[in-house]
Amino acid sequence: MVSEDEVPEPDVLEPDVVEPELIAPEPAEIETVLDVEVAEPLPVEVPPAPVKPRLRDRMGKARSLLAGYVGSILSRSTIDDETWDELEEALIRADVGVGLTSRLLDGLRERVKSEGIKTPAELVNALKEDLTKRLAQVDAGLNYEPGAPNVWLFVGVNGVGKTTTIGKVGLREAASGRTVVMAAGDTFRAAAAEQLGLWAERVGADLVRGAEGGDPGSVVFDAVERAAARGANLVLADTAGRLHTKINLMEELKKVRRVAERPPGRLTEVLLVIDATTGQNGLVQARQFAQAVSVTGVVLTKLDGTAKGGIVLAIQHDMDLPVKLVGLGETADDLVDFDPEEFVDALFS
Fold it and tell me: Average pLDDT, whole number, for the chain?
């Protein structure tokens, strides 16, 4: 017999310990993992490119003025004295001006004789051709010369949209890859500097401004110096339209122009900003600016409003200046290059 003390203890089987990382997933688990679909990233919505406004779409008011006259002329079967009278009245009422209207009609009469024009429709087409040729005679492109900071000086009476025009031009030039510096040269109107500052932030441009009532020439010179130091391409300089001092405005603008011409800058444009709705009255003041600072071109604002359209022809004829840009609305994209053919078509149809 075996005593209790001698009875062997049963063997206790210890479970095998397997490290978790050594456990291989079952085939089904592998398939499940591989079957999981990875969501594709959502497409990024790209805002549509701004659509360039068409002159025809924005010049409805100017076109409506001529529509009645043109319609009456086209309804005739022949070209008679009443046809010429209506055409003359239409052009004068459209702000073309008496002098230019007489020249246009004299030229048309010569064409009627030399080309055998018989119908009113042919007469209207001949007029459109003459207007387009007149407007296309001069280069309407903005002048830019590489190699130094270009200075574009903006002049004109207060209230024509000068400061806003500078902001819009700055956006256009920045979008084309140029680096812009803005000069708040209208030191006699604090609101002008503040407004230009907002545009500078929007454009990503440096803003140079001086003390209220300070020397505008110094502001422009400092802006040119900063542009040269930072390798900027373009200085857009605002100027006063009226001074609250005894200094004559035109003499002050002449001084600013002389400063803008100094190295390291290069003055390549002096742009006169005109409100198109002022018509012939605006030309009186515009001539003074043109004579004082040798204007190179015109920016015509508010052409989408109550402007009669013919002011474009009067500017080029009376002042021998090309219209380079036209404003067709309130947004930055509404400042567009002037196209003579598109403009004439917009007036008549």
Answer: 84
| Residue pLDDT, tens place only, 246-295 | 568 889 999 999 999 999 999 999 999 998 888 777 777 778 888 889 99
Model confidence at 130: pLDDT above 90: yes
pLDDT in tens, 173-186: 999 999 999 999 99
Please state which architecture CATH assigns to domain 150-295.
3-Layer(aba) Sandwich (3.40)
Q: Find the angle CA(240)-CA(329)-CA(59) to the nearest 5 degrees.
A: 115
User: Per the structure block, which two tokens stand in for 32?
Assistant: 């499940």
C-alpha dist (Å) from residue 264 to 145, 170, 181, 253, 281: 13, 20, 14, 20, 38
**What is the band of 103 on the pLDDT scale with cuts at 50, 70, 90?**
very high
User: How many other C-beta atoms can be found within 10 angstroms of the C-beta atom of residue 50?
Assistant: 11
What is the DSSP code (8-state) at residue 299? E
Contact call for residues 184 and 207 (beta carbons, < 8 A):
yes
CA distance 251 to 233: 28
d(CA 235, CA 226): 9
Helix H or strand E segment including 181: strand 180-184
SS3 at position 95? coil
Enumerate the domain spans of the chain: 150-295
**Which residues, listed in sequence order, are joined to residue 337 by a DSSP beta bridge?**
325
Angle value at C-alpha 151, between 324 and 183, nearest 5 degrees: 105
Name the one residue in this structure whose structure tokens are 């444009």. 269
Strand partners, 237: 153, 183
Say if CB 79 and CB 116 are below 8 A apart.
no
pLDDT in tens, 42-68: 554 544 555 667 777 777 666 777 778
